[in-house]
Amino acid sequence: MRGLFVFALLILLTGPVRAEIALELTGRAAEGGLLIGKTEPGASVTLDGQAVRTSEDGHFLLGFGRDETGSKHLQIALGGQVIRRDIAIAERTFKIERVDGLPERKVTPDPKALERIRKEAAEMAAAKHSSTATPLFLSGFSWPARGRVSGVYGSQRILNGQPRRPHFGTDVAAPVGSPVHAIADGRVVFVHDGMFFNGKTVLIDHGLGLRSVYIHLSETTIQQESMVRAGDMIGAVGQTGRATGPHLHFALTLDETQIDPELVLGPMPE
Description:
- It is built from four helices and 21 strands.
- The chain has helices spanning 2-14, 104-107, 111-127, 261-265, and strands at 23-27, 34-39, 44-47, 50-52, 59-63, 70-78, 81-89, 96-99, 148-151, 156-159, 162-163, 170-173, 179-181, 186-195, 199-207, 210-217, 219-220, 227-228, 233-236, 247-254, 257-259.
- The strands form five sheets. Strands 9, 12, 14, 15, 16, 18, 20 and 21 form an eight-stranded antiparallel sheet that branches.
- 32% of the residues are buried.
């Protein structure tokens, strides 16, 4: 009888055994890739020991840069339980792109232009200072413009014969005035009427540090601090800033990590 009592007391003290912490990952783990994660509310998430932002309902994002390879260590902890996953990042081969015919001052700016560039970069960086914790990106993603893909993420750029940093975005060639749409729900955090390199520019925050930028626009049709839905028109294709022809350059970043838009959006719709 005493043995039965002790057994019953042990069950009471330990309680039911908790199932493993829930974890879902969607997307592609590759150079330039983005993973959307979902775990249980209140769980803490780390990647290689660094804290990862999570929403109240347990969503989080993992982004991998152009030259980020090898394996990453993901850890989820909740209520004394811990699960671990190793994420292998696939390597990719990137193109070399030559762009000729640019005005020399747009390739090698003079001191006055450099001062302007630094000022504009600081203004844009300030707009990236904070990001909503609401995962607005869950609206889903769609292409911002239709046309020929004329520039791809990660390609080594050679401008007027001079090697420059890789191209961190996707270019869509289309006639001036063609509509440009928000790729997902978000908040417009930056609108500029004419940056030195970017020309007319729009920056949208999609939550948890994920942002999209649209440059070389001929016009902007949205106000700063506006909320937008996926597919809302935000401007029109142009040739402002450093551009040799009319096109939209759009890019995705997760905090400071440059993401390949095509890995997130998929193929251009027919």
